[in-house]
Sequence to fold (85 residues):
Amino acid sequence: MNREDEHTFDGLISSPSPVDSRLIYIRNKNTNELWTYDLNTNEIQPDEPRIELPPSSVKAYKQFDKVDIDQAIKHLQLYKALGKK
Fold:
């Protein structure tokens, strides 16, 4: 991985998305944004809506079902409020 490459990620990938099994998630090292990698098309792009992650390396990914999205948002808000990095 070349740090200068716009698609450089921190090395940890998620398991396939429970919503769309062709997608896995990565953290872009240059922007700290959550990006998707499409296993079928070999394309990498920012996830929409864009989500900026903390500037430290990702230690783990946890997938949430659609019904758990409110809980996921609460976790992210708490994480941000506590100033975790």
Summary: The chain has a mean pLDDT of 78. The beta strands are 23-27, 34-38, 43-46.
